[in-house]
Amino acid sequence: MIGGGVLGLALSGVGILAFDWIAGALAPEPAGGGWLAAVADAAPILQDALVLAGLALGLWLAAAWALRRRPLSFVTTAKHFRWPLLAAGFVPFALLQLAALGATVGFRAEHGAFVAYPSGLEAAAFCLAALAFGAPAVMAEEVLFRGWILSGDTSAGWRNLLLVLASSLVFCIAHLQSDGLLVALHFVSGAAYGWAVVRLGGLEFALGAHLAKNTVAAALLGAPGQHRWGGEFDAVVIASLAASACLFAVVEAVRAWRRL
């Protein structure tokens, strides 16, 4: 695993170089705006994502080599990646998050895409960039925090309930914030993602739901570092917490539908 860490750090360095190149390509856009400027506004998401993805990829490949396992086995118990399950996680949770956060901030967040840009094209460009730029980080986090759950039997027994709680606790610690509500949010969302892994036998649903959460948050609240929290902070976190709690029911509904 030391070798995996070294490889991961090296790949993170490559990610930083890639980000510098992409940022340079976006820089010539005039300050007046345009869809390319909206894409550039989402660049902070990509910077963090490439660093985290490089580290995760190194550890992922090292673990696959050390344990003599296919790299895909850390993602799914199926023979191939199940794209419909990713969509089953993304679509309903995007709607849940949009309803919860939209009702809370009323689409009035200072840096949200729906109010920050004068045209729908620019808002759409920011949202699509947030989706694409955030995908490497989401994949990295799911493999790091929940891919190891797939190393054994994924039936919903007490052992895996403990694994879900352990993974959500580690996920929570990795996102430790000073505000207790944010800690609770990461614990609940992490537990929901872990429950999806156990019940559906793979990361696909969790990947979709996690990506939906991050993308909708960026669309309504702005990219990380751009948030300007007002008195609605607690309400925003509580709304997102409620949406995350609903994921448990969505997971069971998807599982029942697949069995039918």
Automatic annotation (TrEMBL):
The keyword Metal-binding does not apply. InterPro entries: Rce1/LyrA-like_dom. Keywords: Hydrolase, Membrane, Metalloprotease, Protease, Transmembrane, Transmembrane helix. Pfam families: Rce1-like. Residues 126-215 form the CAAX prenyl protease 2/Lysostaphin resistance protein A-like domain. GO terms for molecular function: metallopeptidase activity. The chain crosses the membrane at residues 49-67, 83-103, 123-145, 157-176, 235-254. This is CPBP family intramembrane metalloprotease.
